[in-house]
Design brief:
- By secondary structure, the chain is of the alpha+beta class.
- It has a single domain (about 1-95), classed as Roll (Thiol Ester Dehydrase, Chain A).
- Helices cover about 15% and strands about 40% of the residues.
- It has one helix spanning about 25-40; strands spanning about 1-5, 45-55, 65-70, 75-80, 85-95.
- The protein has a five-stranded antiparallel β-sheet, covered by helices on one side.
- Strand 3 and strand 4 (about 75-80) form a beta hairpin.
- The termini are far apart.
Length: about 100
């Protein structure tokens, strides 16, 4: 499991929504991508087959990311505490580490 949070001063949160900020889905997906590629440097995410946003994520909330490999790519699930935030499936390729 990988844990992370998106800080309240992240540039994508400005104006999204003033007085009640939420993390945009694209920002969450980018952070998931970065964390996966940091954890598994031999993998490269090449696309998104599916992404579903179930609940709102607020800034500074800890995200618990669980990733599993499937025959089609990588499946992910994100939770904050006991609440599922998002699920999805990435296409991947293997990097050649030369």
């Amino acid at each position: 499991m990988i844990e992370f949070l998106i800080s309240a001063d992240h540039p994508s949160l400005e104006g999204h929504f003033q007085g009640n900020p939420i993390v945009p889905g694209v920002t969450l997906l980018q952070e998931i991508k970065v964390r996966i590629e940091d954890e598994w440097p031999d993998l490269r995410i090449t696309g998104i087959m599916r992404a579903k946003f179930i609940e709102v994520l607020k800034p500074n909330q800890t995200v618990h990311l669980v990733v599993s490999e499937t025959n089609l790519g990588l499946k992910f699930t994100c939770h904050h505490q006991d609440t599922q935030i998002a699920t999805g499936h990435f296409k991947i390729s293997k990097r050649s580490l030369e």
